[in-house]
């Protein structure tokens, strides 16, 4: 019996198959690698990765029956405060986090530990209706039913800070993109890339980024659930390698109020029968009709999608013009100031390289929830045969207000209030996420908006500097 990620209820036969597979892992891979503890994670609505762990001998039990986790995790805020849902039901009830053994990875920078992503099920074996990882798999299945395959990758930006202080003290000095910055962190960067390779992560490139102490790493595109899992694993590994160098790691959208922020751009392509539909067509820049409609579906819903992809009050400190964060709702070929940057690749490479980069999103996002939203919006665009407007080939911030108006280019939401209201009013995303999950997201967002109602930018920056 297949025990790969499965969205239906878990029955006894499933549980037995999962336990047998876990026993096999315990005897082989895990014994060989000296693993003694397994961590299983899920990501909450505020983008925090939460964890439960078991001794290795307990893995078969974990695989079959999961480990308990309160339903209240759906209401956890980034600062561990519980956003009280209406009705007072959050503290009542228990779920089971069941590991996906298909993604069991010995952790290279935490000797003796292995990791798996987890899915949340009810005690009766039914999927939990707020499990964002199972939701994403359902959307992948929905695309597959139309013979469409989505490939995705998260681009990760972070900063390293020296020591344990709460203030930011760059541990990677030197100029943006500078070789001298790389020299200063070369052992750390080597250890990191080696650790990721040992975890079977396909690193594509690494470089010093623009902001003080900022670095960036990109990985190969893969199926959406794998891409979200990879982003969790890679961030965990970056943090763990950093500990060895006495670095503090921050993926916060704004580490310092007056510097460029950390993005968490998402790269997407749509494929059918092994053909990349972002290329090879007769549309603008070679887009095939499905690739165009998928992109248009995302463009149409960007204000609401920001409540998933730029989900914190700190996100809006990053979303300022002319910072390569893509704060205008438009698209353009290789335009780093458009929310959607179309990438065609070099001549001859478009068939495999063409993809759409969603730039306006950051790493306070829950990667499963964000990809679920992007797939839902894109697939809605495909179902409706949507077309893209004229592309934009200039920084929209350089256009006069009447020219922006004439071209129909709008600024994206500038506050979490605006994007949350757009999400609350979006029927396509409500239908895709389901009301239980959508309402839990909205409850967490409302609580965070209230928390920072009177806060200065500096207070927001400090509150998020070390949480993500
Ligand atoms: N750091 C920029 C951001 O906030 C992105 C820079 C880039 O284009 O890679 O998204
Ligand atoms: Mg970058």
Distance between the termini: 38 Å
Instruction: Tell me the domain tally.
Output: 2
Number of helices: 16
Q: Which superfamily, in CATH terms, is the homologous superfamily of the largest domain?
A: Glutamine synthetase/guanido kinase, catalytic domain
Percent helix range: 25-40%
- Globally, the shape reads globular
The CATH C-level class name of the largest domain: Alpha Beta
Tell me about the largest β-sheet: 7 strands, mixed
Structure description:
With 468 residues, the chain is of the alpha+beta class. It has 2 domains: 12-128, Glutamine synthetase, N-terminal domain (Ubiquitin-like (UB roll), Roll); 139-464, Creatine Kinase, Chain A, domain 2. It has 16 helices and 17 strands. The chain has helices spanning 12-32, 59-65, 132-144, 179-184, 186-198, 224-244, 289-300, 302-309, 315-318, 350-353, 367-384, 401-407, 416-424, 427-433, 435-451, 457-464; strands at residues 37-43, 49-55, 67-70, 94-99, 105-106, 113-122, 149-154, 156-162, 203-208, 214-219, 247-250, 266-272, 275-276, 328-333, 338-343, 355-358, 410-411. The strands form 3 sheets. Strands 7, 12, 13, 14, 15, 16 and 17 form a 7-stranded mixed sheet that branches. Strands 1, 2, 3, 4, 5 and 6 form a 6-stranded mixed sheet that branches. A 4-stranded antiparallel sheet has the order 9-10-8-11. Strand 1 (37-43) and strand 2 form a beta hairpin. Helix 3 (132-144) runs parallel beside helix 11. The longest helix has 21 residues, at 12-32. It is globular, with a radius of gyration of 22 Å. It starts with 11 loop residues before the first helix and ends with a helix. The relative contact order is 0.13. The structure holds glutamic acid and magnesium ion. Magnesium ion is lined by residues 157, 209, 216.
């Amino acid at each position: 019996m297949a025990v790969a990620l499965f969205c239906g209820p878990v029955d006894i036969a499933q549980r037995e198959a999962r336990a047998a597979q876990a026993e096999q892992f315990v005897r082989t891979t895990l014994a060989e690698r000296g693993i003694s503890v397994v961590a299983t994670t899920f990501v909450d609505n505020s983008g925090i990765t939460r964890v439960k762990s078991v001794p290795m001998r307990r893995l078969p039990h974990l695989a079959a029956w999961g480990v308990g986790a309160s339903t209240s995790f759906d209401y956890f805020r980034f600062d561990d405060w519980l956003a009280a849902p209406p009705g007072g039901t959050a503290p009542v009830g228990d779920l089971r986090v069941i590991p996906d053994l298909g993604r069991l990875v010995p952790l290279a920078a935490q000797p003796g530990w292995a990791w798996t992503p987890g899915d949340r099920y009810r005690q009766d074996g039914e999927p939990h209706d707020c499990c964002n990882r199972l939701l994403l798999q359902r959307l992948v299945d929905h695309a597959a039913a139309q013979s469409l395959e989505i490939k995705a990758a998260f681009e990760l930006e972070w900063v390293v800070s020296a020591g344990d202080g709460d203030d930011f003290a760059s541990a990677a000095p030197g100029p943006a993109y500078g070789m001298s910055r790389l020299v200063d962190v070369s052992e750390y960067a080597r250890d990191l890339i080696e650790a990721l390779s040992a975890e079977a992560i396909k690193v594509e490139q690494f470089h010093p980024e623009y902001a003080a102490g900022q670095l960036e790493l990109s990985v190969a595109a893969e199926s959406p659930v794998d891409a979200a899992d990879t982003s969790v694993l890679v961030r965990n590994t970056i943090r763990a390698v950093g500990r060895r160098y006495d670095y503090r790691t921050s993926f916060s959208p704004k580490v310092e109020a007056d510097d460029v922020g950390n993005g968490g751009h998402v790269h997407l392509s749509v494929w059918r029968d092994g053909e990349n539909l972002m290329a090879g067509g007769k549309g603008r820049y070679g887009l095939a009709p499905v690739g165009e409609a998928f992109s248009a579906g995302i463009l149409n819903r960007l204000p609401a999608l920001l409540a998933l992809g730029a989900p914190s009050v700190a996100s809006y400190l990053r979303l300022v013009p002319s910072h390569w964060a893509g704060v205008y709702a438009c698209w353009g070929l290789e335009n780093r100031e458009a929310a959607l940057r179309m990438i065609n690749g070099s001549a001859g490479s478009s068939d495999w390289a063409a993809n759409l980069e969603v730039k306006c999103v950051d790493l306070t996002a829950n990667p499963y929830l964000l990809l679920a939203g992007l797939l839902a919006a894109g697939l809605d665009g495909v179902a409706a045969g949507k077309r893209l407007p004229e592309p934009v080939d200039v920084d929209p911030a350089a256009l006069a207000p009447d020219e922006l108006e004439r071209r129909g280019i709008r600024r994206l939401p500038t506050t979490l209030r605006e994007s949350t209201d757009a999400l609350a009013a979006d029927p396509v995303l409500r239908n895709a996420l389901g009301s239980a999950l959508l309402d839990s997201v909205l409850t967490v967002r409302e609580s965070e908006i209230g928390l920072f109602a009177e806060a200065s930018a500096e207070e927001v920056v400090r509150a998020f500097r070390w949480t993500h």
